[in-house]
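Notes from the 1:1 (GR / supervisor)

We went over the backlog. Supervisor wanted to see one worked example end to end before approving the batch request, so GR pasted a single chain during the call. The sequence is below; no edits were made to it. Supervisor asked that the structure be written out right there so they could see what the output format looks like.
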Amino acid sequence: MSSDNARLKELGDFLRARRAELTPQAVGLPSAPSARRVPGLRREEVARLAAISTDYYRRLEQGRIRASGPVLDELARALRLTDDQRTYLFELAGKPSGRPRVRSARAISPQLRRLLDQLPEGPALVLGSGMDILAWNGLAAALITDFARIPEHQRNYVRMVFTDPAMRVLYPDWEDVARKAVTNLHMDAARHPDDPRLAGLVRELSTRDADFRTWWHGQHVESKGQGTKRFHHPVVGDLTLDWDTLICDTAPDQFVIVLTAEPGTPSHDALRILASWAAVHLPTTSPSANSDGEGPLAAPRPL
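Structure output shown during the call:
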């Protein structure tokens, strides 16, 4: 199957999944008195809401035709898509989303490396396209894992979440973390449909993990932003940390995840203890983004 045909099929799957989540009442349609044969909205109901023919909509779901920008707008409105879902829909259709497409960069700037090193009490990571781990500071290595010991071509956050058993212990809410990782990966896959690394990652995880395969086909999408994560750490115990995303204007495919704790809380105290522990047990230098444990940004964690 060609790349274009695969994207049309993905668009059809996405439309079908979204209409299955809606009810006639949710979109202002009368509920039929007889039992419905399908979950969610029928095709003809979506077509009516989007002011297109049922046959046209059916062919869209079957991946047989392309939709114009105005039709995509109407479908996004009819299906009550979120901003993230609407962006994903347009990217699957190959329509402009208002942002220029840029080549994914894996090298990070010296300024960004310096920022990571100057966050002594905040674990921080730089992630790239497909959630590849490009750089990290020493406290991130102490909190999560020894990234430097992972071969660079396998250094990917989603792969770690699904294939490293330690992640299921580290994250008490592992399922929620894993689901969010899949939704973020969906967004990247739509932005970079011809990225062989990303396509290979999806194939690998679909083969290796049933949960990933199920959630990937669920077609849920979500952009990176902010939130809270719970950790169960083998040295300092339980922590609840807030995370925020910083976007790099000079490298739009790179973003920084910074984890912090409210001062005076047990989690803040635990981070300070972890930083002291790392200063004793880890090298004083921190690992470099594109190295395999050599250079100014590497930090093994013997946990």
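Supervisor's comment: Residues 3-20 form the longest helix (18 residues).
Batch request approved.
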